[in-house]
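Please fill in the sequence for the structure shown.

STRUCTURE ENCODING:
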């Protein structure tokens, strides 16, 4: 447990990261950004971790940048938001995308501003029915950051991305799932069980293969079909030599569940 995060390892291979500033809807202050980035780096270096889940404490998931850190006294110099993005949000989003294992986001309540886009930067997003996504940036004269302008059009198309970004309306979790913004929406009372089921499945899966899937799908956004076919060839070659592939085939032929080791 740190000042802004609660860290748990409920089962082998699973790390739960709970954003823990519930009185502020888990808005991200400097401390939380540092702690999140450091924790994700530690998780990435720990070969015993197979899957990470990020969720929020209390009634919100994350309300984005803590705006009380942005109140500027009359006449005082404004904060350089470009520096904040470069030093904080950019590394955070890249850390999530580059982790060589699946990152699940369990969205328990409102996800606004950078909070929404940090959620969308995770690999599998499951949200409670009462949760919502708000591209709140336009309400305060900003542009969607933390990858929002990259992720939104790719996930939901330009028309919907433009509406979400320019209007800043609340998108319910049900709508987000129907639009393909997230993996799925579940009843509030089922979020914990749905998340646990995902974590158990992912923790037992061949982590090296999942990491390759993550890299390949993300790379496809900037690749031609030819480049992507080459990438698939190289990934398959590499994975074909793995213990997990050998075990997967043996388990299939022996009609038993596989025991993957991530090697
Ligand atoms: O600055 C940079 O480094 C650049 C990067 C920017 C990235 C960004 O994320 S910019 C966008 C920042 N976020 C927002 O603009 C969202 C602000 N929050 C809201 O619009 C609303 O709080 C919500 C729609 C998320 C939820 O509304 P509601 O009615 O359910 O809750 P509430 O009453 O507004 O909030 C509850 C408490 O949380 C309240 O505190 P209080 O009055 O009870 O003491 C509220 O002030 C606090 N809170 C909510 N969001 C933030 C926050 N405090 C600080 N910063 C916040 N972002």
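FILLED IN BY: designer on duty
SEQUENCE:
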């Amino acid at each position: 447990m740190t000042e802004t995060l609660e860290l748990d390892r409920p089962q082998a291979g699973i790390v739960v990261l709970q954003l823990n500033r519930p009185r502020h809807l888990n808005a991200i202050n400097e401390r939380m950004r540092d702690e999140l980035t450091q924790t994700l780096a530690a998780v990435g270096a720990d070969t015993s971790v197979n899957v990470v889940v990020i969720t929020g404490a209390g009634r919100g998931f994350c309300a984005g940048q803590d705006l009380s850190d942005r109140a500027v006294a009359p006449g005082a110099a404004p904060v350089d938001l470009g520096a904040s993005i470069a030093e904080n949000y950019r590394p955070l989003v890249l850390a999530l995308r580059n982790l060589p294992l699946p990152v699940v986001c369990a969205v328990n309540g409102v996800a606004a501003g950078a909070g929404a886009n940090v959620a969308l930067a995770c690999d599998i997003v499951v949200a409670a029915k009462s949760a919502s996504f708000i591209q709140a940036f336009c309400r305060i004269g900003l542009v969607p950051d933390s990858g929002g302008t990259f992720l939104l059009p790719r996930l939901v198309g330009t028309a919907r991305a433009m509406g979400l970004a320019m209007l800043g309306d609340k998108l319910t979790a049900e709508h987000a799932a129907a639009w393909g913004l997230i993996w799925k929406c579940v009843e509030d009372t089922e979020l914990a069980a749905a998340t646990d089921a995902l974590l158990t499945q992912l923790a037992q899966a061949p982590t090296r293969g999942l990491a390759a899937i993550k890299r390949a799908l993300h790379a496809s956004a900037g690749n031609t079909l030819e480049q992507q076919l080459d990438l698939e060839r190289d990934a398959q070659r590499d994975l074909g030599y793995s213990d997990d592939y050998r075990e997967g085939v043996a388990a299939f032929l022996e009609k038993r569940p596989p025991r993957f080791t991530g090697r």
